[in-house]
Amino acid sequence: MSKSVSIGQRVTRRISRVSHFGSHRNFENYRDILFVLLQKELKVRYNNKGLGFLWSIANPLASALVYLIAFQILMRVRIPDYILILITGTFTWQWFTNVVGSSSNAFVGNAPLIKKVSFPRNIVLLCMSCNHLIHFLMSVPVILLFLVLHGHYPALTWIYGMPLLIAVQFTMAYGIALGLASINLFFRDMERLVGIILNFAFYLTPVLYPVETVPPKLRHLMLFNPAAPLIAAWRDLFINGKVDWLYLAVSAGYALLFYLLGTSIYKRLSWKFAEVI
Amino acid sequence: MTSHSNQTNSNQTMRDPVVSFQNVYKSYPLYGHIRGVKNFLFDFPRSLKSMKDESFEALQDISFEVYEGENFGIIGHNGAGKSTTLGLIAGVLKPNRGIVEVRRRVSPLLSLGAGFHPELTGRENIELNGVLMGLTRREIRLKMDEIIEFSEIGDFVNRPVRVYSSGMMARIGFSVVAHLDPEILLIDEVLGVGDIRFQKKCLDKMMTFKESGVTMLLVTHSVASVINICDRAMWIADHRVQMMGNPIEVVEAYCEAAGLPLNLGLINKAAL
């Protein structure tokens, strides 16, 4: 009996089909969905109070302060301009970890929409990524302030270095988040696993320390950590005004890989979202 | 393929169906044992087995067609598969087997407060629902006043939806969908919440839809609205089509099967 059913399913899977004619969307509609969802997220997150900006910088700033106290004052780490290392590390890392960390809840948190309305669901993730990008951009002046206070000034390389790194990090974070958000619908404890992995990644990524302090023997291993070259490249750009093409290329490779992986997971699973949510 | 469907529905040969189901099967996997990665890995064989075998058949061999401008009612017991049917039409679900074809722009599944974000104001929710339905913000802005006026919720439109009563949610939900030029309107048991006057208003609106050629699919437990609104009705029992045709006959058979003989005189009076 069960055998005949499974054979039946295999045969008929070929003729299962849904065709929606007349439900096509144009570009303006896609753009507006993104815009309205983004507006919604920003509003819900900050409840429309002017404090929004402060919150987006308070977090990385506070963690930078904590690490400064712990490592420079209490443990007496001797790294010149350690505060700059911390600021450039934590702000960029925060952006990455915010996107990846909040991905688990992205689809689950929008359950009513996913259940009832047929729309391209990856827009939810795209919107979330844009949201965190905005927060990062708003925190750049703070990084700049610290740099200027320590005698470092913006370099001309920022003009092309920043957009490149932003594009790479955006793509990488979006890809990872899209894949995780999709899987999380089927395995709801993915969230915890992600938390643990992010914790590991935080210490294995040069956020709290510059790449130069890593023993030369281990330094090339850094390239196996997708986030490491990215954070290192950001720091090089911010502090030294230098675009490190090796780091940039490796990160771009990872970004492309994760983007393809994330979208293919999403494509395979997305039609089941409404069933499992 | 169109010729095939015309043959099977000889009495509807003049019009093309806007929604057509051909031998549609839908089952939901229960995902019973795979609540998480941990369970999945540590209980792998059982998880795999449950993934393959355990499923819930929500629809079995459902075939029907709905034509342009028709008001089509779907009735049946709880869990019979009515909402799954609407989900398939809305495009949020995919059939395991069979063909679902929809030839017009579908409204989202309209049920109480679905797609509404509690923290956003009524106005913002109208915009959100509109773009999700496929309209642009420009188009929505043109209709905003009309929507708010129809819903009669007054100043509440500028307050967050979480402070709304369930009737207000229903009002605004219906107004949005009704004013966003749907071509196929899916209504999942929503009219019962508004007060009598608003229900009447909705009914009137639905009748104007009918004149403008909007196709409506209505899932409801109110046999009165099936009789009053629908041109045809389908009764789903045990995940199959039990009966389809004249709404009064279908409702009568449905009520009889439920052990509650239908008293038409009483219902008509109540509905008016």
From TrEMBL, chain A:
Q: Which GO terms describe its biological process?
A: lipopolysaccharide transport
Q: Name one Pfam family in it.
A: ABC2_membrane
Q: Name one GO molecular function term.
A: ABC-type transporter activity
The family database entries (PROSITE patterns) matched by this protein are listed as: ABC_TM2
Membrane protein topology class:
Multi-pass membrane protein
* Alphabetical list of InterPro entries matching this protein: ABC2_TM, ABC2_TM_bact-type
* Predominant cellular place of this UniProt entry's protein: membrane
Transmembrane regions: 50-70, 82-102, 123-149, 155-181, 193-211, 245-262
Can you say where in the cell this protein is located? Answer: Cell inner membrane; Cell membrane
The record places domain ABC transmembrane type-2 at 51-269
Q: What is the superkingdom listed in this entry's lineage?
A: Bacteria
* Keywords noted in UniProt: Cell inner membrane, Cell membrane, Membrane, Transmembrane, Transmembrane helix, Transport
GO cellular component assignments: plasma membrane
Q: Which family does it belong to?
A: Belongs to the ABC-2 integral membrane protein family.
By what name is this protein known? Transport permease protein
Name the species this protein comes from: Pegethrix bostrychoides GSE-TBD4-15B
